[in-house]
Amino acid sequence: MRQKIAEQRGVSTESILVGNGSNEIIELLGHAFLRPGLEVVIGAQAFIVYKLVTQLFGATPVEVPMADFGHDLDAMLAAVTERTRLLFVASPNNPTGVANAAADLLKLAEGLPEHVILCLDEAYAEYLDEAPDLSAAIHAGRKVVCLRTFSKIYGLGGLRVGYAYGDPELIALLHRVRQPFNVNAVAQAAAAAALNDLEFVAMCRTENEVGRQVLCEGLTALGFETVGGAANFVLSRVGSGAVVFEALQRRGLIVRPLAPYGMADFVRITIGRADENQRLLSALRELLESGEIASVR
Ligand SMILES: Cc1ncc(COP(=O)(O)O)c(C=O)c1O
After folding, report:
1. Relative to the CA of 151, which ligand 1 atom is closest?
2. Residue 297 within any structural domain of the chain
3. Does residue 295 fall inside a structural domain?
């Protein structure tokens, strides 16, 4: 698996670590590099696992306000102290669906001091027109670890496979804290086959873009503002996210309420297939008409 990924990325096998989902690798970063007294710089509405893992290892999350729902890289760099060990950026971010420009991410990688590891989480990078590319920084010896996953565009979430590529010295340390057989053989076989299925990836990307437009137009027509959309979900301001979540769940539809992210008036809606998107929009229309959810116009 590592060899196949290394070949596809044009890097050495030593630069690759495969994980039980990329979530496992986030935890491995904690095992290898965090302890009480150290700090981790994260975006205030970034993927919540960064904060949970930081707390799990007794380190301190330093939450930096986001700018227009994306990571404010300058503010994050300014939040770095002597105690910072890790800085996480998800691009596109979950749940906001906003990506940072590739050039800005490279600038961040080059601007961080030696004692800080940049973890660039690329879980949704395949949905972007221009995926970030930190290979120049990695080759230059910068302390960078990038995360990829088979759970999103490849559709293999239940099998649990993700991988990290980055500075070989950091990757070697992560290998030392993982379990010896952390990714099972079935998952590896599926991921290895998926890796070369570029046609499937291209098809999902196109379908996702079509679905995103349908959902955004439909939500806007119902009076709900939409944000993000660089990944396979959109963020929508629906009034009370909790009320909308419960009303939709009663109709067999699950969206993500975002109170834990400090965005109680939003839900995150996964872009589905054409029929699923229509089902969601119809359900919202009916809920508005019946008064089960309030209009935000
Ligand atoms: C930004 C981001 N990173 C990592 C993950 C973890 O994915 P997995 O552990 O399935 O690879 C997710 C999943 O929701 C995510 O949204």
Report:
1. 10
2. no
3. no
Hey, which of 27, 152, 154, 261 would you mutate to test ligand 1's pocket, going by the most ligand atoms within 8 Å of its Cβ? 152
- Ranges of beta strands (E only) in the chain are 16-19, 39-43, 60-64, 84-90, 117-121, 144-149, 162-166, 225-227, 233-237, 256-258, 263-270
- Residues of the chain above pLDDT 90, percent: 98
Atom of ligand 1 nearest to the CA of 23: 9
Task: Please tell me whether residues 209 and 175 are part of one structural domain.
Answer: no
Per-residue CA distances from 11 to 20, 136, 137, 197, 255 (Å): 21, 11, 13, 20, 38
Summarised one tens digit per residue, pLDDT across range 217-252 is: 999 999 999 998 999 999 999 999 999 999 999 999
The domain in which residue 67 lies consists of: 2-196
Encoded amino acid at 170, one letter:
L
Each residue of 95-112: pLDDT tens digit? 999 999 999 999 999 999
Asked if 147 and 120 touch (Cβ cutoff 8 Å), the reply is yes
Going by C-beta distance under 8 Å and a sequence separation of 6 or more, which residues neighbour residue 48?
Answer: 260, 261
Alpha carbon 90 to its chain centroid, in Å, reads: 5
- The yes-or-no verdict on residue 294 having pLDDT over 90 is yes
What is the position in ligand 1's atom list of the atom closest to the CA of 46? Answer: 1
